[in-house]
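Homework help board

Subject: predicted structure for assignment chain

Our instructor gave us this sequence and asked us to write out the predicted structure in token form, then describe one feature. I got the tokens but I'm not sure how to describe them. Can anyone check?
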Amino acid sequence: MAGQQMARTLQQLDIRLKRAYEPASSDDGARILVDRLWPRGVRKADAAIDHWVKEIAPSTELRRWFGHDPRRWKEFQRRYRAELSHQPELLNEIRARARNGPVTLVYAARDETHNEAVVLRDTLMG
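My token output:
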């Protein structure tokens, strides 16, 4: 029974993704920057970031190894999920926010399919 209730709760999460270079929107809800580094060329005043959770970003070593190379995507996902498994408090904080309204994970990567925000969203959604 508890597993079914948890599954229902996770399905109700409203987690969206958006590049840091796209304009903020009123329907973004809480905007959380999930990169370790501030996006190049983006002024803090223009970014409309509510929270910057750099600790949840991939480690510098993993980010450099991946280099946004799609050929390394599967292994990047595995390694990043392993890193995320050591951050249950941060994951739970974001889930709690997403239960109360939309959460937009903001990232800087050009590739909208192969980036840490995609892995993070999928991990949060269970």
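Reply (TA_rk): Your tokens look well-formed. For the description, you could write something like this. Residues 73-84 form the longest helix (12 residues). That's the kind of observation they're looking for.
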